[in-house]
């Protein structure tokens, strides 16, 4: 038996700082609801609480901005940590240790930051392209994807 379509709670957006704080806490940027993640790397199709569609109906290019944001932020943090280690240990810097640490951080940080970058992208995007009820109606959540 098909489930009745849920209507969105509201279509207004909270303030940008509130959306960003919710995104950093890995919650839905619009309603603050939890349970929006299918895995560490992927969100559900839409928010189970407010029905904000996370896949905004575009090609896979939609997440390019999130990946770019992720890479830049993660690598800046990696370089920042290496610089702090160098400054703290100066002049007796164990360069091999710094080099090894930098390589590990450069690989690990983008993986750790990915859900935060994706969620921040989800927070920024509706600020510039507010969701519309028609959009959600066209992109109804496929059964079983919540
Ligand atoms: Zn939501």
Helicity, in percent?
A: 40-55%
Range of strand content? under 5%
* Shape verdict: elongated
Average pLDDT over all residues: 82
Bound small molecules, deduplicated: zinc ion
Secondary-structure-based class equals mainly alpha
Largest β sheet strand count, sense and barrel closure: none
Number of helices: 4
Would you give an account of this structure?
It is a single chain. The chain is mainly alpha-helical. The protein has one domain (16-138). The protein is 51% helix and 0% strand. The chain is built from 4 helices and no strands. It has helices at residues 16-24, 64-89, 95-128, 133-138. It starts with 15 loop residues before the first helix and ends in an 8-residue tail after the last helix. Residues 4-10 and 137-143 have low confidence and may be disordered. Bound molecules: zinc ion. Zinc ion (ZN) binds at residues 28, 30-31, 33, 47, 49-50, 52.
